[in-house]
Amino acid sequence: MFANYLIGLREGLEASLIVGILVAYVVKSGNRARLGSVWAGTGIAIGLSLAFGGILTLTSSSLSEEAEHGFAGVMSVIAVGLVTWMVFWMRRTAREMRGELHGRLDKALVGGGIAIGVVALVAVLREGLETALFLWAATTTATDTAAALGGAILGIGTAVVIGWAVYRGAVKMNLATFFTWTGALLIIVAAGVLAYGVRDLQEGGFLPGGDNIAFDVSATVDENSPVGTLLGGFFHFDPVTTWLQLSVWVVYLVVTLALYFRPQRPSVPAPAPARETTPAA
């Protein structure tokens, strides 16, 4: 539940901040009449994201057992890839997110209400599709689906409240720090989702090594116990883990966290163009 709460909180807050920035800029630029376009684009993006999640669920439930394992494994790997790209992108651009969106809106305001709606649609849809895919992948590995979905909904609700508070100026938050540390936690969650994806591919016969067990603590760790729930909910811990699962989990976690926390190089400003000199008469 906590892992899905974290996913919903982080992804939901990112989308909430994007909407808040768009709304604030439209209002402050004297274009309040075009707010309807922002909300329409946001609403369409949310609807498409929910539909995408529904399609994933229906598709997986209509497959054979082997194909379902393969589908779940592939979707888990894709979800981890998207989330990994997203956390690196957000760590690099969190400080410039407001300016980037303002630049897009400046161009969209010239094009009218439809253009503004498209900016909101694209910005929110990207977050929504990533959220739907990663939540689906994380929920399919959860032992308690209802609790996992409840955690995600609670996280998104918390994100909306925080986003509104930030928009209203009630909360002063260092967004770069927030996204840096929640990104690191998401990498830990993603490592578990990736390991589960590998296990699904092994059970579907798409990867070898399904019988090469690294450890089996199923007799010691009950998945329904508080410890098992915590390990499974946040780390997606599998009591019966293969060597390939364990290797993928360790390699992904070590390499990704090392790259994520390496010092960032400051951006070097572009050199000013040389002025043309007028030849002396």
Could you explain the architecture of this structure?
The chain is mainly α. The protein has a domain at 2-187. It has 9 helices and 2 strands, in the order αααααααβαβα. It has helices at 2-28, 35-61, 65-93, 97-111, 113-140, 145-168, 175-203, 226-235, 243-260; strands spanning 213-216, 240-242. It has a two-stranded antiparallel sheet. α2 runs parallel beside α5 (113-140), α4 (97-111) packs across α5 (113-140) and α7 packs antiparallel against α9 (243-260). The longest helix is centred in the first third of the chain and has 29 residues, at 65-93. The radius of gyration is 22 Å and the shape is elongated.
Keywords:
281 residues, mainly alpha, two-stranded antiparallel ribbon, 9 helices, 2 strands
* Count of individual helical segments: 9
Computed structural class: mainly alpha
Poorly predicted parts: none
Q: Give the assembly state of these chains.
A: single chain
Along the chain, the helix and strand elements come as: HHHHHHHEHEH
Count of strand segments: 2
Radius of gyration: 22 Å
> How widely separated are the two ends?
78 Å
Would you spell out the secondary-structure blueprint of this structure?
Layout: H1 2-28, H2 35-61, H3 65-93, H4 97-111, H5 113-140, H6 145-168, H7 175-203, E1 213-216, H8 226-235, E2 240-242, H9 243-260
Antiparallel strand pairs: 1-2
Helix pairs in contact: 1-2, 1-4, 1-5, 1-6, 1-7, 2-5, 3-5, 3-7, 4-5, 5-6, 7-9
Provide a brief overview of the structure:
By secondary structure, this protein is mostly helical. It has nine helices and two strands.
